[in-house]
Amino acid sequence: MKRCCLALALLLIAPTWAEPEKRDKSRYQGGYEKRDFDLPAEWPRPAIKSVKISADAKVGFNLHLLTSNWIFDTHQLGDRTTSTKGHKLAYGYVHLYVNGRKRNRIYGPDFYLKEIDLDPGSNQLEFVLASPQHGCWRVDGKRVSWQTSLKRP
Fold it and tell me: CB 82: neighbour CB atoms within 10 A?
């Protein structure tokens, strides 16, 4: 009887063991795990100072990100063996979220945002400094990000 109860309990609990692993993976990113980095104490704090948004001549928007203490660097993208060793500044790329949904990766300071990626009306944009392992950079436990709103005509 004890064995039956134990087996039943294990069967009921087993699906929840796999659940967190699924949450750490994103279908948008091809299903691979993310790895966040806490900024080493000796490094200067990275920041997104501002994002300049201007209407494109035809359709959509042109964005220019102004960052500090940050290097756009994608040559180690997805390399699970990468560490902060040998670096002195935060590096990687930027995740762009539109209304809470990850929409794109930004690999340099300039980026074109298609109008079709926006909902009609007001949209909330969030830019997050991402590590080469597709997670985010954190300072004092909080991810480094910048937010603004943009209205789609």
Answer: 19
Predicted confidence (pLDDT) per residue in 85-114, tens digit: 777 888 999 999 999 999 999 999 999 999
The CATH number of the domain holding residue 103 is 2.60.40.10
Residue 25 in domain = no
Within-domain flag for 28: no
Count, residues in the chain: 153
**Collapsed DSSP state (helix, strand, coil) of residue 22:** helix
The two structure tokens encoding residue 101: 């949904």
DSSP string across 89-107 = SEEEEEEEEETTEEEEEE-
Amino acid, single-letter form, for residue 89: L
Neighbours of 109 (CB within 10 A): 15
Q: Which helix (H) or strand (E) holds 53?
A: strand 47-55
Cβ atoms 50, 147 nearer than 8 A: no
Q: What is the pTM of this model?
A: 0.75
Structural domain includes residue 20: no
Q: Are 139 and 45 in contact (CB under 8 A)?
A: yes
Q: Which amino acid is at 134?
A: H
23-56 pLDDT tens trace: 344 444 455 566 787 888 899 999 999 999 999 9
